[in-house]
Amino acid sequence: MTADVAYPDLMEAATGRIVIESDRDWFGDPRLGTFAVYLDHVSAGRLRPRDRIELPCSSGSHVVRIRQWWFRSNLIQVHVSNGRTITLTADIPRDSNLIRRMAIFLFTPSKALCLNEASRRPL
Question: What mean pLDDT do residues 74-83 have?
């Protein structure tokens, strides 16, 4: 899936790509499990469960964030070189026990989602 970019000047200047993938399962209506993707604080597209989105961008530093309802990820800063593709994975935190994850969703919704570079994905 390619993003519908709201600013056409960026498409013309695009020399790199940021790819965001989601491999999480979602039961029920997939629209409810869709992440909103933001590139440089501007809405860049929607990422459905078990899907991917490609964001063309210019070379240089960019910030990326995902959101689902009122839950958000931290801002991730990536540096894109000419012709380079950066791959990120979008998910919920899975590196702690269920009680801790529930507490994160309840008390810190601004850190409830994870956005990581594919090579730095936690096991």
Answer: 90
